[in-house]
Amino acid sequence: MPTMNVSLTPEMAEFVEKELATGDYATASELVRDALRVLRRDRDLESERIELLRQAVDHALDQAEQGQLSRRGVLEIAEDVLRESKA
């Protein structure tokens, strides 16, 4: 397995030490590998969300080109979205 040296801020080093003290990780390397897996997963999920958003925008643009427009205004739609998110 390749080895890398990484410089950490004092705060990050303290965080690593605290995580190691919990016993969830045997070594700092194990913790960093897990953190990188989480970062990769988060980036992959974000890419998927962006792609879904692009598809939704493309679909909406196609509908608009076909004259399938909503009579509702942007503010009305935004208010509904906010109201639904609070429910």
Automatic annotation (TrEMBL):
What CDD domains would the database entry show?
Answer: RHH_NikR_HicB-like
Q: Does the keyword Nucleotide-binding apply?
A: no
Alphabetical list of Pfam families matching this protein: ParD_antitoxin
Q: What is this protein called?
A: CopG family transcriptional regulator
Q: Does the keyword Acyltransferase apply?
A: no
User: Which family does this protein fall into?
Assistant: Belongs to the ParD antitoxin family.
**Record-linked InterPro entries:** ParD (IPR022789), ParD_sf (IPR038296), Ribbon_hlx_hlx (IPR010985)
Q: Which PANTHER family match?
A: ANTITOXIN PARD
Which keywords are on file for this protein? Toxin-antitoxin system
Q: One of this protein's GO BP terms?
A: regulation of DNA-templated transcription
